[in-house]
């Protein structure tokens, strides 16, 4: 029999932050709110909704407060906001009552951290320690994601020990959840299995999360490997939006609908309504005015029975 | 440590048959020959080059004889032709000295077999028995692929016992290799692991091959699961061309360059030069005049170090 898989997994939808952030054309606040409200009615129970970054650096997310104040979110959903530093947290706390979790981040490689947030890793982590304590004291849930956890486009392979060391630092300052981000799609399933096995073993009581990109088509293979290692927490983006596409033109985050389809087919429950997520991805496609790259947005769930097939094929 | 994987795997490039077959515009014979000659210099040692089907049904492959006579193929490469029936074999044998293997096929579901080749499964298998014996008596290698092995778009799930029964029938008539085709992208990794484990166990001495489509984005996840089950033989298509896209607009075959990239990253050797395959896929892109859907054609191998990355992301 196949390797035993967890009976269920949790999905955090990151499209409203990670997806929208990478769109070159500004999406109207009203469109963002409508799409988020639609996502919030698909059975998803976690949504990363905004990032409190400098508006001159990421103009697309300058309306974070308006979005947070404008959405209509069912009670059971936990909303997450991303903050790059302590100043970001200051801004987020102006609408403290509108979200539940705060995500920090740092890169596992110095060069990427420098280019991403213009700081050394140690400086970021010193700031993250302050941020984590403030989040906790506000009664919010501190979470973290380690970028370039599977490799850096500038430095190449990142030692597993280094990535795990950063994870332990986040755990030590009270992060309830630590994600491993495959920022530019350098993860492969064998490595994923090993690092998730190690992280789950070394950080008992901490939620270990997977944030994969589909840059080189391995996103779902990595998700399968993470599941095999016992990971039950995943981040993905409806329509396969966003995910810091590097190199330019690449796909980014794994698509929520493709991930859920695979999980459901394998009997791993998510509580999410797949057709409803596909509908939301199609709505995003309409808003953005272009074809998105998720697979199930075209092919649908596997129980679709199309009318035709080609001949002479297999 | 991660589940033990095979040290190496074999890839059959099926783009010149399975890929070209699904192109709506006729590709010139000269362009086909140039692309095949390029593929034959990438380290690939197996290429499925043509199908001997009725020209009125698949006009794209009407030049099979001209292609076979026109290509310049290094000695170490085994060329495969596909035949839908005994009449197809008659036509193939007119250029008997130009190829090495012949692939038969049948669907695991009655409805798909009827729509694909207009016959019942039993009729197809009776013909395949005659074809297999003739292939063997010609000193060629008989191979087979079972379509809809992981599900049928008309009938839904196909019982594993039924698919394995057909595989045993192919083995009984002398097939040296039997592939399991995920015709419309209904396979998931847990099922893949189980059926490949069973097939390898029940058919010792037969090469068990995987023919996956990326219809719902799970192609490489399924390849990883097949590897874990001990499968070392894979079919794929450069550029992610072809693969009977159902529903219309879906992607088909897994991309050779994406598969090889994942295998090499995991330390599974293929003998294939990845940048050379990417070059061939880009040449196909030029010939076809449109962007293809493979990932590595855009992102390149993981050792690429692009100049830029977005800010404030993970």
Which keywords apply here?
alpha/beta; homodimer; eight-stranded parallel sheet; globular; 314 residues; 12 helices; TIM Barrel
Strand order, biggest sheet of chain A?
Answer: 1-8-7-6-5-4-3-2
Level-2 CATH architecture of chain A: Alpha-Beta Barrel
Please state the CA-atom Rg of chain A, rounded to the nearest Å.
19 Å
| Percent range for β-strand residues of chain A | 5-15%
Largest beta sheet of chain A, briefly? 8 strands, parallel
The CATH homologous superfamily of chain A is termed Aldolase class I
Number of helices of chain A: 12
Overall 3D form of chain A: globular
Number of domains of chain A: 1
Low-pLDDT residue spans of chain A:
none
What are the secondary-structure elements of chain A, in order, as H or E?
EHHEHEHEHHEHEHEHEHHH
The computed structural class of chain A is: alpha/beta
CATH topology of chain A, by name, is TIM Barrel
Distance between the termini of chain A: 26 Å
Please write the CATH class name of chain A.
Alpha Beta
The oligomerization state is homodimer
Short description:
The structure is a homodimer of 314-residue chains. Chain A is an alpha/beta fold and 314 residues long.
